[in-house]
Amino acid sequence: LQNLLPEHVTDFFIGKDIQNQDLYSKSCECVCVMFASVPHFFKEFYNESSVNNDGLECLRFLNEIISDFDELLNKPKFSAVEKIKTIGSTYMAAAGLTKAAKAEERRFGVVLCSGINHGPVIAGVIGAHKPQYDIWGNTVNVASRMDSTGVLDKIQVTEETAQVAQTLGYSVTLRGVIHVKGKGQLSTYFINTEHPVQ
Which residues carry out catalysis? Predict the structure, then answer.
């Protein structure tokens, strides 16, 4: 069950006669949401040819990428980071849904096109027979936009998240003002992961 739902959510359900209308939900004040994607993955890698074993090799490659993320999050130092889901070739994770993360647990570097934002979310489980844990809110939407408008090999963040990253010892570079669908013009930053400030 803990492979399907976070441990703090399974604790809510185990040993209880939960009715379909008894939803699990929780408001969280400050959650860090990350989307990491391989841009144009299916366009560039997927094709149903005999050379690619009718697309199977492409799916194996994607599975390796996703499995590497899963393995990374199994490390104790990332115990506060929870995988939410994968959407195509995009991996979604969040920290701060259970306990406050220690500073070293917040250092989550990725080498893809990535977007991070933080703020309040609603977390909950939808469904009774194949329940799915997910998070919703403006924080999630903006994190997704930070990924989709991002640059390969960069972690794009909002101005507020850039300020938090700086307090954790990272330097940031102003990307500039970009148009973000549904949000208008936003100043965004790249987190400089190569040389964290000591």
Answer: 145, 181
Q: Are 182 and 188 in contact (CB under 8 A)?
A: no
What residue numbers bound the domain in which 46 lies? 23-151
Residue 125 belongs to domain with CATH number: 3.30.70.1230
Residue 183 inside a domain? The answer is no
Binned average pLDDT, 10 residues per bin, the chain of 198 residues: 77 69 78 88 64 69 88 89 90 83 45 85 84 91 94 92 93 94 93 67
- Angstrom CA distances, 17 to 4, 12, 29, 81, stand at 19, 11, 29, 29
